Amino acid sequence: VEMGVRDEAMLRAQPEHTPGRLAGYVGKADMLVSMRLHALIFAAPQGVPSIALSYARKVRGFMSELGFERWVVEIERKMPDPDEMVAKMRALWAVRKEESARLLEAAHVMEQAANADDAAIIRALENGE
Fold this sequence. Notes:
The protein has 5 helices and 3 strands; from the N terminus they run αβαβαβαα.
């Protein structure tokens, strides 16, 4: 709201929503702030730039793999300064279109690597390895 987004324009996911429905909501976003890995995973291939509130290694690792370490806020050991959070949100908002394009490319590269891994596992299982 402080960045000029109307409150009624913001969607808040409800607990009963399915993963597919949640992914659809995330894909409509201009920007995401999340501490949940799966929300970040839903956002990446849809080009939704995200700030990751990192409470665990898996969240940091995912953002690092994408090359988006700049948008990680550590919350595992300390609560971030509210001014720092607002500054980071404003910074991402200002470059969200550029970061969206960069994110789409990074997610595509990760998807290709995952597909190659899948194929290698299938081959190994078929060959009895």
